[in-house]
Design goal:
With 578 residues, the chain is of the alpha+beta class. The protein folds into three domains: 2-172, no CATH class; 185-238 and 278-368 and 472-542 and 553-566, Rossmann fold, CATH 3.40.50.1820; 372-468, no CATH class. Helices cover 23% and strands 25% of the residues.
Length: 578
């Protein structure tokens, strides 16, 4: 990387047609980025990101986030980018948290660029889309194998003085190793015919399967199945057959204000192993699903106009495959769902959309389950997602808080962060995946925006589509006369009343229906954690940072009790109780 000042004729300041950030175009700060033929002889598509940091603690690509401590990113889309060709990123690139390169403060920065590579998808309905396929990392642009980047260099930058920084993307993120089978954890991967047909190319589903103690010694046993929904799992999480590493250097987690959390995680994982293999613990299968896709690290486990039939693919292809291979009982009374956050929404959604195929869900801190409280936005009545508007005043809507209500990001912040990382719902972040899952297809073939990403103005026609297809609270109210009898005793929802993303607001609305109007009575459970932030999952006796590590040991015993109460006559309640 080298820095070159742009030479300018004296008359340039008198005869300029385009001003950028108050500067003549020829005086503007710009970054000229290229990649060598050794990296790729073929032209490339993707999102080119220029990353700047004043913090030397880590590479800039690992310091871009939605917190107040985020560093800087500026992004542009590139298509048919040829090796050796220079692409310019200047003040026209959309930036976060500073909107334009021209607005940077003069100073020393660690400078890095990265190309998040896109592939061309030719869908069965004729659409041709350019999207970033997951490559085993769970849709993390800064870690995705095959992405090009450069090693950071420290430079002095002064946008008022102008200049050009030349960057060569001569590094490539290497492939990730595949997880290995162990005695207790097995890994499966199948080609989904349903998804392959939709996407016009081979598409796969995977899973990590935790086997019960005694699986090999009891070939006659058939087991209940627990689907533990959540974000992309590189391997089965929270299970460790060895004691914690005594030499592990304690870390500090700002979110929980806890020292040595890495050791706590290992302690809880080892404790789960001892419990799982100990006498008396229910013998079941627990599955964590891999369903990363071109938009996000998972699909939300439902059928979608933009993502394809992931709900049916999981339910009709993956689950039967797992049950056949690992001797699952294979009946609805013996299948259960649980998870938190995204996984909490998925657990409730799968129970609602496949009411006979599961016998209960435990939905912790679920993503918005009522779009009258899409975090703090009512998408059916509000005009703007970013501001509460009156005749003479606009108040920014909060997007992220702590348990005392201190706001660290607005909804506008969160969405502009996403817009810098990717256009057309391709950032791989939270609001974009909600849009990709819930929205109809737009005129350009990509998800139709629920609100304008720059201004926040809401599209009511898209909101109506969301309500009819994915507003779980609305669907339950609308269809309770058909669903009520099938879901009695099956729905359990937990959320902190100071959820980081205001997700408790939607839970209140669903609870109102369950406890005042639903007939027949839902006969489930809704509980709140006092002052608990995101990921509270129903245990009031432990701090949030510990209880969030105990999903399996919390819910499996309760699942056993549900089976005892609800299994049909003649059900196998013995072969797996050894």
């Amino acid at each position: 990387m080298s820095l070159h000042r742009i030479t300018r004729p004296a008359c340039a300041f008198l005869a300029v047609a385009c001003l950028l950030g108050g500067l003549p175009l020829d005086a503007a700060m710009e970054f000229s980025v290229s990649f060598p033929r050794e990296r790729s002889a073929a032209p490339l598509d993707g999102r080119l990101l220029v990353l700047l940091s004043t913090d030397p603690a880590a590479e800039p690509r690992f310091q871009i986030n939605d917190s107040p401590n985020t560093q800087l990113v500026f992004g542009i889309d590139v298509e048919d980018w040829k090796p050796g060709q220079a692409v310019v990123v200047d003040g026209r690139a959309f930036g976060y948290p500073v909107r334009s390169i021209a607005q940077l403060r003069p100073g020393e920065y660690h400078v890095q660029a990265l190309l998040h590579r896109y592939e061309t998808f030719r869908l069965s309905d004729g659409r041709v889309l350019k999207l970033p396929m997951d490559r085993g990392e769970g849709q993390h642009w800064n870690r995705a194998p095959g992405n090009f980047y450069n090693k950071p260099a420290k430079l002095r930058i002064d946008p008022q003085a102008g200049g050009r920084v030349e960057i060569l993307l001569d590094q490539e993120i290497p492939p990730l190793p595949e997880p290995k089978d162990t005695k207790y954890i097995k890994h499966v991967r199948i080609k989904s015919e349903l998804l392959s047909r939709f996407w016009g190319r081979p598409m796969y589903l995977g899973a990590h399967v935790l086997l019960p103690e005694g699986f090999d010694q009891h070939p006659e046993a058939r087991y209940p199945l627990c689907v533990f929904h959540g974000h992309f799992p590189a391997d089965f999480g929270g299970f460790r057959t060895e004691p914690p590493d005594p030499n592990l250097k304690p870390d500090y987690i700002e979110r929980f204000k806890v020292h040595g959390y890495n050791r706590m995680v290992q302690e809880e994982a080892y404790r789960f192993y001892k419990t799982w293999t100990g006498p008396g613990f229910p013998r079941m299968l627990i599955v964590e699903i891999q369903h990363a896709n071109p938009f996000y690290d998972d699909s939300y486990a439902v059928n979608s106009a933009n993502l394809g039939p992931y709900g049916d693919a999981i339910m009709r292809e993956l689950v039967p495959y797992i049950e056949k291979r690992f001797r699952g009982i294979g009946q609805g009374w013996a299948r259960f769902l649980y998870g938190g956050s995204t996984g909490g929404w998925e657990a409730l959604a799968a129970q609602v959309f496949y009411p006979d195929e599961f016998n209960g869900c435990f939905a912790a801190c679920p993503d918005p389950i009522d779009f009258r409280a899409y975090t703090v936005v009512n998408i059916y009545e509000d005009r703007n997602a970013y501001y509460l508007e009156g005749p003479h005043k606009r108040v920014p809507r909060p997007g992220k808080r702590d348990y005392l209500g201190h706001v660290s990001a607005t909804i506008e912040d969160l969405n502009h962060f996403e817009l810098a990382l990717g256009t057309r719902s391709r950032s791989g972040q939270q609001f974009d995946i909600w849009e990709a899952v819930y929205s109809p297809v737009g005129e350009d073939g990509y998800p139709k925006r629920i609100f304008d990403k720059l201004s926040g103005d809401i599209d009511r026609t898209v909101a109506e589509y969301w309500r009819e297809h994915y507003d779980l609270s609305y669907i339950l109210r609308r269809d309770w006369n058909k669903l009520g009898a099938k879901l009695q005793g099956k729905i359990h929802v937990y959320c902190g009343d100071m959820d980081t993303y205001y997700l408790n607001n939607a839970v209140y609305l669903l609870e109102d229906f369950f406890k005042s109007t639903a007939n027949p009575y839902y006969d489930g459970e809704v509980r709140y954690g006092d002052r608990a932030e995101h990921c509270w999952n129903g245990d009031p006796t432990l701090p949030n940072h510990i209880s969030r590590l105990r999903y399996n040991t919390m819910y499996v015993p309760r699942i056993l009790e549900r089976i005892k109460q609800s299994a049909p006559p003649g059900a196998d309640l013995k072969s797996w109780r050894y």
